[in-house]
Amino acid sequence: MSHTAQITSHRKPRRSTPRVSLRAGVAGGVLSTIAVAGAAAPANAEPVTETIEMPTITAGLASDFARSAEATQQVANTLDLRAQQDAAAATAAKTAKTAKAEAERKAEAKRKAEEARKKAAEAAERASRTAERTTLSNASSDSGSSSASSSSSASDTASQATSQATGSAAAVLAFARAQVGDAYILGSTGPNAWDCSSLVQASFRQIGVDLPRVSQDQSVAGTQVSLDNLQPGDILYWGSAGSAYHTAIYIGGGEFIGAQNPSKGVIQASLDYDPPTGAVRVL
What we know:
Elements: E1 26-27, E2 30-31, E3 34-38, E4 48-52, H1 59-143, H2 146-164, H3 167-178, E5 183-184, E6 193-194, H4 196-205, H5 215-218, E7 223-225, E8 235-238, E9 246-252, E10 255-261, E11 265-270, E12 278-281
Helix pairs in contact: 2-3, 3-4
């Protein structure tokens, strides 16, 4: 055989490089197939095709995404509104708390001022009683024997004045006269010790008239009357109207009954003995 004779090769024919083709498209909302094809060595070989079905974003899914986004935005808006409402409520609560504290502070200041006013009035009354007691003590050494006759005369005048008073005034004077000789103790309200305003208050309570407890209030409890036009049952006061430091009851005949001071107690005396500043009428 010739060395150049043609020998049939047993090598497998070389295959061409596979070709992959990806095609995608949307038709009617469904992803078209992706075809992968490789060319076989023989020209007339059937191409190998592999088909993979893949989902695509359809119009329905897009609508769902849109609704989800809208719902998320609504939740965010609701949370933001709630945060604003909570902040407003907190601010309102803080403002209310501040206003309440200020109102309480003002009320407390007013209460303390009222207490201070009453204490000042009581202190003035005590000071007046002390000064009066000193004056009376000095004068008592000069009065001597005249005191007994004066007391008798005062008793007679009181009886006459009480008999001249009628109705409610008579009841007031009768109670006040029954207390003559009782002790004077500041703050006492009876039955055997009084201060000036408690005796006046208790005397008028006998006829159902409820007077204030302290002198300064009693001095404006009725109609102001002139000292030249007094009637039995009028309330006498010492000091200014509204800030008086002492009160007593006019019994007629130019005399009064009152809880005078710790050294004298409840007495009946002439207006000349201790001239009052003014008077009010409640009957």
